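[job 4471] stage=fold_predict status=RUNNING
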Amino acid sequence: MGASTEQTAKLMLYSSSGLRIRLAGAGVFTLLGALGALFLQTLGVNAEFQGFVPCVVLSCLMFGFLAGAVTAAGSTVVLWYYFVPPPGFALPTFPDVAHLVVFLAVAIFVCSVVAGQRRMNAELEKENFELGYRNFLLRELRARLRAPRA
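[job 4471] inference complete, writing structure tokens
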């Protein structure tokens, strides 16, 4: 029963509707990052990419590595278009390209760390459930062994 439930969950994870939900979530978090970057810009902070980092992490936490990577890529495109001079998709200077590449690399690295943490937590949750069930069975066995026989 447990194996079929896991297989069903994996199929749902990679189904087309699940993929659409993840991509939509990535788009929403990219837009939230853009709003955060605009807010930082109005405060006079000259590091607009900082507004995207929490959104990349939340996207990866909620929807998985793929959504986090899509959010990171979308954030890089938004940064390039709106925040890197000259405005639009004109060719930026080398330092600006380096900033974008470093941002993308760090965001993907953070996504991989978060995805690994999600996998480990899922494995620990499964093991914890199994240990709890074994503990229940041992208590049940002990109670039956101690009970007087009729």
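[job 4471] summary: The helical segments are 2-13, 16-42, 53-63, 65-83, 94-146.
[job 4471] exit 0
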